[in-house]
């Protein structure tokens, strides 16, 4: 049966507003994934506006041979050749202040104004919708752990592929699968997350450094990495092409240190913080004391629409950093799209070896294969 016939049958399940054809003005915004290279230009998009319509649609679509995808607004969103399910309407927020639990729609973005009163341990990758939940790394993850840790992700509401709606805690195997695997068990509509109390303001922002100061930056990073871990400090390092910085008149490529220090400005500017970056010749300091929500907005999606999976390292030295930059320089010098799209990003102190006891119990459980106790991409061994 053609896709058009399936769409016609979906018309008896969904309202006209929940079906988006390529001719619609909404098609582009509701079909484009974060990474443009994964856009499969689907035949039609459905955007359920309630859990009931999602349940009915998923139960029907699971009986077909159509290519399906679950689309959110974040880097984890997926496209599909036939029908992606856009989850942009699932963005509600409910905060139980007494029990310090926040229930968020699976597509709630971390920069959402609805989340402004809530200080979370870590945030979902701006809308993880498949039945797995990514171990999101963020500014506070080295202090409170990953989002998928038991202490942070308490439960998830799931629509299974047969249309059944339940909270994953009702099925321990399902909750375990969501937390630890990439299995396509269904669609998550809501998360229950542990809220964390935190100070109202932190110090951070961007420090732009001429790329000619690469060796000084590498030395500073290596020294910082070698010190005992401070869970209230984290940062990212980007290579910024001069054409991305035309607003500041940049004549050359620059390195951008996105700094975060919860201990305040004095600590952030000290030798225990980011003095090594601030002291680089030609450094442009745009850091300031801001709220956590403002820090999140600094990472809002810009013009770039490319995303690849990253790897994580438990140790990093000057030689490894320099090799990474050599790779970037070679890639950026390549002709065509490769050179234009070459990018390099490091994240430092954005995770920790969390839930050790839980992972050890799972790794020694009879229901977990031994090969699951393999090196994780974030640098430690064991089942997450």
UniProtKB/TrEMBL annotation:
Keyword ATP-binding carried by entry: no
According to the UniProt entry, its GO molecular function terms are: FAD binding; oxidoreductase activity
**Domain (FAD-binding PCMH-type) ranges:** 38-198
Recorded hits in Gene3D superfamilies, A to Z, give: 3.30.465.10, 3.40.462.20
Identify the cofactor(s).
FAD
Membership in a protein family: Belongs to the oxygen-dependent FAD-linked oxidoreductase family.
Q: What is this protein called?
A: FAD-binding PCMH-type domain-containing protein
Source species, please? Cladophialophora bantiana (strain ATCC 10958 / CBS 173.52 / CDC B-1940 / NIH 8579)
């Amino acid at each position: 049966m053609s896709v058009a016939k399936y769409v016609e049958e979906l018309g008896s399940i969904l309202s006209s507003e929940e079906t988006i054809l390529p001719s619609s003005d909404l098609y582009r915004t509701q079909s484009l994934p974060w990474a443009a290279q994964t856009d499969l230009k689907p035949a039609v998009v459905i955007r359920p506006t309630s859990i009931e319509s999602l349940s009915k649609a998923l139960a029907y679509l699971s009986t077909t041979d159509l290519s399906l995808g679950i689309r959110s607004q974040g880097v984890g969103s997926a496209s599909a050749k036939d029908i992606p399910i856009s989850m942009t309407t699932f963005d509600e927020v409910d905060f139980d202040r007494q029990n310090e639990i926040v229930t968020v729609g699976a597509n709630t973005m971390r920069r959402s104004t609805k989340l402004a009163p809530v200080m979370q341990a870590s945030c979902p990758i701006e809308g993880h919708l498949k039945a797995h939940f990514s171990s999101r790394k963020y500014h506070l993850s080295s202090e409170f752990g990953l989002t998928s840790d038991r202490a942070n992700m308490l439960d998830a509401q799931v629509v299974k592929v047969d249309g059944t709606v339940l909270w994953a805690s009702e099925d321990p195997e399902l909750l375990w699968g969501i937390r630890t695997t990439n299995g396509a068990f269904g669609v998550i509509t809501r998360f229950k997350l542990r809220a964390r109390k935190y100070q109202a303001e932190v110090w951070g922002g961007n420090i732009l450094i001429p790329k000619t100061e690469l060796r000084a930056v590498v030395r500073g990073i290596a020294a910082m990495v070698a010190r005992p871990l401070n869970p209230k400090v984290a940062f990212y390092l980007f290579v910024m092409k001069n054409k991305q910085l035309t607003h500041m008149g940049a004549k050359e490529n620059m390195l951008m240190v996105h700094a975060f220090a919860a201990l305040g400005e004095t600590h952030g500017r000290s030798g225990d913080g980011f003095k090594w970056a601030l002291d680089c010749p030609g450094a442009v300091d745009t850091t300031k004391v801001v709220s956590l929500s403002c820090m999140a907005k600094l990472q809002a999606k810009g013009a770039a629409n490319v995303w690849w999976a990253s790897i994580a390292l438990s140790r990093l030295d000057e030689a490894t950093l320099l090799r990474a930059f050599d790779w970037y320089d070679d890639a950026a010098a390549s002709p065509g799209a490769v050179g234009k799209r070459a990018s390099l990003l490091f994240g430092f102190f954005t995770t920790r070896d969390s839930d050790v006891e839980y992972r050890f119990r799972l790794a020694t459980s009879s229901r977990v294969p031994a090969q699951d106790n393999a090196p994780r991409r974030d640098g430690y061994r064991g089942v997450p």
